[in-house]
Structure formats: structure tokens, C-alpha cells
Design a protein that fits this description.
44% of the residues lie in helices and 13% in strands. It is of the alpha/beta class and 169 residues long. The protein has one domain: P-loop containing nucleotide triphosphate hydrolases (Rossmann fold, 3-Layer(aba) Sandwich), CATH 3.40.50.
Length: 169
């Protein structure tokens, strides 16, 4: 199995990180080492100098694409979980990798469900004007038009999501 870059995109609270952890575990069982890149983690380190405006979000995707490329070139599959709200940013990552390596996974949980879950209380803060440039509220999310996989976590269990992703690879 070729080491691929599985790029999970979707709104905050959609289930990206949960699916990413399970996918990384499944890949680790099959192939050995896996690089797991989670948006919350990289924002505390490698990308802590970035904000949440459009330019910063594009730069965040660019940096993570370069990291993913380095791991891919080393033969390590990458599971990346980022909101990455702009199609242009995700397509730039796809273009920096060999054909067939970038697997775009749209965790297509609707905004209403993400707000209902609101695990970090961010939607509530965004609705009250406490968070600026919040994706889905005061900043756009451009859903993928033709992702390799589209998942709705309202109806799919985590294991089913992982199986769907692995089936496309």
C-alpha cells in the first residue's frame, strides 16, 4: 500500500480528530509508523504564529502540506485533520504531492450538528462575537466539490468512517 496523505477537512466539531486518531491506529496496524497531524496540536507549536484570518489559514494549509510531503517522501502515511476552509489551500496541497497520493476526506457534518455538539464552546463564543473569523459563522467554509470520501458523522460510526476511507485507498 502506497503511503498516502489522508486530509480530513470539515467544520469544528465535525469529528475530524476522532476519525483521524482511529484512522491512524488502523493504518499503524497495517503498515507501521504513521504521522498524525492535528490542527489543534500544530496550532500550539509549528503554526502558533498564525492567526485565523484567510491569509493565515492558507499559510497553515501550505505549511502542513509541506510537512505531509516530507513524511510521504520518507514512506510514512499521513493523517491530517484540519478545518482547512478554503478549496484553494487544499488543492495546493494536492498539487504538491504525486498524483493519487492526496485523499481528501470531507467530514461533512452539517453546521447545526457541529453547533449542537460544540465540544469546546467555540460556536457559542463565535455567536456572541467573542471569536473573530470563526469558520462557518463569521468566516466561510468552502466544502470540497469532489472529495475522494464524504462522511456524515450523524449517521456513520467512527469505525464505518475509517472503513470508508480505507476502501478508497
Amino acid at each position: 500500500m502506497l503511503p498516502r496523505v489522508y486530509w480530513l477537512t470539515g467544520l469544528s466539531g465535525a469529528g475530524k480528530s476522532t476519525i483521524a486518531v482511529a484512522l491512524a491506529a488502523a493504518l499503524r496496524e497495517r503498515q507501521g509508523p504513521v504521522c498524525l497531524l492535528d490542527g489543534d496540536v500544530v496550532r500550539r507549536g509549528l503554526c502558533k504564529d498564525l492567526g485565523f484570518d484567510a491569509a493565515s489559514r492558507m499559510e497553515n494549509a501550505r505549511r502542513m502540506g509541506e510537512v505531509a510531503k516530507l513524511f510521504h517522501l520518507s514512506g510514512v502515511p499521513v493523517v491530517a485533520a484540519f478545518i482547512s476552509p478554503f478549496r484553494e489551500g487544499r488543492e495546493a496541497v494536492r498539487r504538491c504531492l504525486p498524483a493519487g497520493i492526496f485523499i481528501e476526506v470531507h467530514v461533512a457534518t452539517p453546521l447545526e450538528e457541529c453547533e449542537r455538539r460544540d465540544p469546546k464552546g467555540l460556536y457559542k463564543k463565535a455567536r456572541h462575537g467573542e471569536i473573530k473569523d470563526f469558520t462557518g459563522i463569521s468566516s466561510p467554509y468552502e466544502a470540497p466539490e469532489q472529495p475522494e470520501v464524504r462522511l456524515d458523522t450523524r449517521v456513520l460510526a467512527v469505525a464505518d468512517c475509517v472503513a470508508a476511507i480505507l476502501a478508497c485507498a
